[in-house]
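Researcher: Go.
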Amino acid sequence: MSTLKVNTIRHTGASSDAVTLATDGTCTAKITNNLSNRNLIINGAMQIAQRGTSVTDDGMKTVDRFTLGYGGTDNHLTQAQHALTSSDTGPWEKGFRNSFHITNGDQTSGAGTGDHAYFEYNIEAQDIANSGWDYTNTSSYLTLSYWVKSSVAQTFYGYIATVDGSTQTFSISTGALSANTWKKVTVKIPGHANLQFDDNTAAGLTLYIIWPYCGTDRTTSGHTLNAWQAYSSANRMPDNTSTWWTTNDAIIEITGVQLEVGDVATDFEHRSYGDELARCQRYFYKNTDHTMGMFIADNGAAAEAYGVYPYPVTMRSSPTVVLGDNNGNSDGKVTQHGSAHDLAATVTQNTTVGFSRIAKSSGTFSTSAAHPIVCKVISATAEF
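Model: Structure:
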């Protein structure tokens, strides 16, 4: 019986080792299977859209955790949670059934220097600090991967920005896209001595994954891709091709967004709908099951009422709460039984797990025990 003695194993075409053997007989391997809890992105498969499935507006209005930002437009862009089909060759076979889909408006004045649109995703600082990424070490990596499709054939750019300490940016590219063809993009992101991530719930890393267009007031022809640099407003990425921006009703969509520790893009970590929903509810909770809280007015301070309304999960921060009346109207009112009308009220004693008091902005509640107050939460938001 013979023994093969090696320190590492690497494919002939690879740039890094697949298996590293230690002197104590143990090994470290890069395994591309479905190990859990490695994707730092929530809702990367675009399954959850609590706010709605389509809107002609900017902001976080459809797919949870993903923002569409834009400015300088002649006509607004439309964002949507888009259903994929078997004709979406590439992501469909990998189990993706939804995308974050953007449709351009008619930008009649052309590509202005301040015109722009971008996909944005924010990660809590503590999630990066505790991820296992040795982020000040240039030999330690995060790997970003995602699927993208555009109706216009061109290259798109984006960048990653740190929030804590001095802002640092790392620009990225999709590479050349063919029109109406899905492409999987993979980007390795090394550590850098100037990176800082505080161990808290504030934003720590912002991913501007793709800018469908960015005017020249934010770009430069001499920009260096795939390298960390101190933030410069006028030098975030290379000059953009304007074709997508000047094409009426051009589309671009993404799905399968994954960010993980290591220098290899592993298979996407698919999670159940319920798991992703609970993760999303840490940042935004929409009450869809008509659950209500019962509150009783304080005899000593009739402008206040006490009860318990728990959130379904612990939220990132004490959220901004939108109240509605007994009919579910988002009008900042609550219904007191026995009263002829709904009463304006605000949430107080609000924490990450729920609230226990509401206060009437003027006047008083009825303190009769026969007149409990019905408090309907429409939504609770704890986004960055």
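Model: The first strand starts at residue 8 and ends at 9.
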